Automatic annotation (TrEMBL):
Catalytic activity: L-glutamyl-[protein] + S-adenosyl-L-methionine = [protein]-L-glutamate 5-O-methyl ester + S-adenosyl-L-homocysteine
EC assignment: 2.1.1.80
Taxonomic lineage: Bacteria, Pseudomonadati, Pseudomonadota, Betaproteobacteria, Burkholderiales
A Pfam family reported for this protein in Swiss-Prot or TrEMBL: CheR_N
Residue span(s) of domain CheR-type methyltransferase: 1-274
A Gene Ontology biological process term: methylation
Protein name (database record): protein-glutamate O-methyltransferase
Any GO MF annotation of the entry: protein-glutamate O-methyltransferase activity
Swiss-Prot/TrEMBL keywords: Methyltransferase, S-adenosyl-L-methionine, Transferase
Length: 275
């Protein structure tokens, strides 16, 4: 099996090209060891003897592309990731927004949702806000490019590190909004009722996604090169409400892009009105 032998540079490049073509993720040679480990598992599952064979499968079987995307994406996430964002959202954004828009449902977009912890974090905070302001309404759209991870998000069943983190940071919310099931915890009906899921590649123009008041685009821009980031930000902006808020991840910044997002606080930007 030539999977044990060194993979030549042309083959490595062909894989990086496939990753970029299907996800927009820019991988360099540094990432080969990571990618190789993930590919090796898939080759075993398909009983293939070489990496080149898998490239042929990718070209010949369009269905394989979805599995390929699942294996090349990194889905690291957690409930209440980056606490200061959630302090801003619950403590500043929601009260201000509700004062100005009491009659309209808030639309929140978790734009690289992974397994759903981000979307359900929003749902918990919105439910808490609604318990104090019964007229408040909201809808959350969670999108991701990965089929398998979106199925996990929609199943909303969590265990291990994910649930341990929530237990430590917000035990009262875990007790209130989750139910123990199958050795873990499932999001209860109050959280599920307002969250919907859809497959969406950030590199495609957004269709039927629009006028989002809050967009969480966190820990995904880092995977794209500068041109890719610019293209994704343009797509995302098209789906945002005028003056909607864009929140990025801890190691992401929009400072080098001139495209109508105004800095509000670190990691938080506001969509400027279109000219
Ligand atoms: C590291 S996770 C971030 C999850 C969450 N936003 C957070 O900050 O915890 C990155 C997610 O981006 C998704 N992703 C990667 N490329 C994408 C693309 N082109 N379009 C949509 N989602 C993408 C991956 O599938 C993965 O679930």
């Amino acid at each position: 099996m030539d999977t044990e032998r060194e993979v030549d540079q042309a083959t490595r490049r062909a894989f990086f090209d496939q990753v970029r073509r299907h996800t927009g993720i820019a991988m360099s040679e540094r990432k080969w060891t990571l990618l190789e480990g993930r590919l090796r598992r898939r080759l075993r599952e398909l009983a293939l003897t070489g990496y080149r064979d898998y490239l042929h499968v990718l070209e010949a079987k369009p269905d394989e592309v979805r599995d390929f995307i699942d294996l090349v994406t990194t889905n690291e996430t957690s409930f209440f990731r980056t606490p200061r964002i959630w302090e801003y959202f619950a403590g500043q954004f929601l009260p201000r927004w509700f004062d100005a828009h009491a009659d309209t449902p808030l639309r929140v977009w978790s734009a690289a949702a992974s397994s759903g912890e981000e979307a359900y974090t929003v749902a918990m905070l919105c439910e808490e806000f609604r318990s104090r302001h019964p007229a408040f309404r909201y809808r959350i759209l969670a999108t991701d490019i990965g089929d398998a991870i979106l199925r996990k998000a929609a199943a909303a069943h969590y265990q291990g590190r994910s649930i341990d983190g929530l237990q430590q940071s917000h035990p009262e919310l875990l007790a209130k909004y989750f139910v123990a099931a199958d050795g873990g915890f499932s999001a209860g009906p109050a959280l599920r009722a307002n969250v919907s899921f859809r497959r969406y590649n950030l590199h495609e123009p957004p269709r039927d996604i629009g006028a989002m008041d809050v967009t969480l685009l966190r820990n995904v821009l880092i995977y794209f090169d500068t041109d890719g980031q610019q293209a994704v930000l343009e797509n995302v902006r098209r789906a945002m409400a005028p003056e909607g808020v864009l929140i990025v991840g801890e190691s992401e910044s929009l400072s080098r892009f001139e495209m109508g997002f105004a800095f509000e606080q670190p990691l938080i930007y506001r969509n400027g009105r279109r000219p």
